[in-house]
Amino acid sequence: MQSLLFFLIPLLLPISAAAQSSSNISLGSSLTASNDNPAASWISQSGDFAFGFRQVGDQGFLLAIWFNKIPERTIVWSANRDNLVQRGSKVELTGDGQLILRDSSGKEIWREPPSTGAAYAAMLDTGNLVLASQDSSTMWDSFDDPTDTLLPTQVMSQGTKVIARLTETNYSSGRFMFDLQTDGNLLLYTTTYPFDGANAPYWSTQTSIGSGYQVVFNQSGFIYLTARNGSILNAVTSNNVTAQDFYQRAVVDPDGVFRHYIYPKSSASTGGRWPKAWSFLSFIPSNICLRIRADTGSGACGFNSFCSLGDDQRKLCQCPPGYTFFDPDDVMKGCKENFVPQSCDRAVEEMDLFEFRDMSNTDWPLNDYEHFTSVDEDWCREACLSDCFCAVAIFREGECWKKRAPLSNGRIDPTVGGKALVKVRKDYSDASAGSGSKKKENSTLIYILSATLGGSIFLHLLVTFIFFQRRNQKKQKTVESEKGVPEMNLQDFTYKELEVITGGFKEELGEGAFGKVYKGVLTTENEKPVAVKKLYKAVNEGEQEFKAEISAICRTNHKNLVQLLGFCNEGEHRLLVYEYMSNGSLADFLFRKSRRPNWYKRMQIAFGTARGLFYLHEECKSQIIHCDIKPQNILLDDTFNARISDFGLAKLLKTDQTQTTTAIRGTKGYVAPEWFKNLPITAKVDVYSFGILLLELVCCRKNFEVDATEECQMILADWACDCFRERKLDVLVENDEEAMDDIKRVEKFVMIAIWCIQEDPSLRPAMKKVTQMIEGAVDVSIPPDPASFISSI
């Protein structure tokens, strides 16, 4: 990839400032901040960019540069981000050639360049504001002093920082920065907010000291780090976007993620495939919640909060139970307790005033002050409950960590494992239905006893009271667990309830090997739509299959898996209730649409599917082999995120198992060769199926097409291998303009697919490596030529 980029450099280098069209601004020109005339500005010759005052809510005015032809008027640079000015403030290009901003009282706020002598200013069509001398040499430009944004043709030199704004509506310097250090390394850092010093790195190009020289953002959408001789050291982003069709910007967003955005200049130029809004093509790091883990600072989110990724891959900061945000408008300020903390003078006496709220797959790393091994969860709970310093206990596989406030580096993710036990005062927590009044009565009783009885008598009564109360609670939990399926947080429906929910199983969504799926509505949950899978009566080993599916699904928790909500196991009736996926299956998305699906959405679906399989194979407590990965079993949610469904064919392995032998399962065309050779079946069968699926996503066609134009194109895997061998990958996507414009990624994804469909399972990469290759964290080497795929059709 780097060698190709290097070859393209002469064609893609940024255009110099002197070559840009502009409308010169003469000495003595000025602009005044005014509510009456907010449109007053200096505009580039094309009208794409403007420079002037922009009002920021009721806070004041920002002297800024913005995209001028789109309704959002997106700001890309500002002179006074940390010192807004009020109405009546003025910016002037003085007679001696300096650009000076003064507030309404005449006080100087900002000045460039440091020395005099500029003959004119110009707002260029690149978005660069330039002060030039009489011979047109640049004395100062805004590109050399970026705020939070980089634009095409912009170059970052050593020592340059791009600092995120504080929030979406507050443009002052924030908590994250993109820094090309003087030693040549390019990093993303948390800052020592409110200062802009570097605190902790969370992404780096890891180049050798002194090698990195410039970061280049060229007009074709490539952002890369070069050495002093111009050779490419690292490709930060590898997007290929036509400058004539899209506006572009790369931003260190307030959440700390570096994103490359595009905006179509017109619907006609892009065939209506892109919305008239900013969409991001790529971003780093892939999961900021897990990347930031530092001894200092709060982490990806504020103190006492935790971080997760939303469906759009954006960071979500939330407070744990019993906590609320200090400032909802700036969640990075963290969360505060909604209750009186435990008294250290009376920690043992107050034990029964507190309880735990469990949070699965949650942790606050580097906050522990005590660590215990070979203990059970009850011991861990009691240890934290009796310790006034303990705000949260983490229990994971026989180990217990006690953590004190303020909590930092909070994250919730399936890769974390275990559970966090958040200690809250009962009076201030959200009591569960049916038990809140009883808990409040118990707390009140303890207060009364402590106030009216002597110390020793009270302690004796308190210990007796707690003993009997906890014994009754344990009995109650035992009785409750016998009513449902143990260890499952699922709703147990009756068959009659599901008949009502589905309207008598009226609307069929689809049919698979093990049953039909119907649409239903949960009237008890604000008309929430669900998908009800009704298993066939005559399924071989039906009871075992049902139990295996329930056991597998209820222990999974990942954004790329369909969530199981409930079940019915009543006599001959066995049904599963899933969350409803509004955009149907990937098969519908790829093969039944009149218009070709968006290339970048297809690539996001590929990544989501890979990430879901990686979770099933390596991140579950018990490994799950799906055995039937195909477009019909990849569903799409409201935002077209891939969600793997249907574990009815899955084989649940014990922790110490790595392979199994079983009858042939799966769907023709996606089945790995080992199924036909009586070889042990491992997770590599899913890798094979994913490789076929990836080729379908790249080429936007089925893996087998009888009506193909040429016979050699009937079997997609064979055809793709032939095209790769003959260096004719453009033939695979010749009718797909978006894919043709991103041919390097096409090549990369085809190479990954060929690795996945190797006939020898040992040659196929694990899904973890597949995910890393798709994400760009691991290079993709040239794959060997697979033997034959005819046996798999």
From TrEMBL:
Q: Which UniProt keywords apply?
A: ATP-binding, Disulfide bond, EGF-like domain, Glycoprotein, Kinase, Lectin, Membrane, Nucleotide-binding, Receptor, Serine/threonine-protein kinase, Signal, Transferase, Transmembrane, Transmembrane helix
Q: Where does the UniProt annotation place the signal sequence?
A: 1-19
Which residues does the record give as ATP binding sites? Answer: K534
Q: How does it sit in the membrane?
A: Single-pass type I membrane protein
Q: Which domain of life is it from?
A: Eukaryota
Which one of the record's GO molecular function terms can you name? Answer: carbohydrate binding
Q: Which GO terms describe its cellular component?
A: membrane
Record-stated family: Belongs to the protein kinase superfamily. Ser/Thr protein kinase family.
Q: What is this protein called?
A: Receptor-like serine/threonine-protein kinase
- Species: Citrus clementina
Q: What is the lineage of its organism?
A: Eukaryota, Viridiplantae, Streptophyta, Embryophyta, Tracheophyta
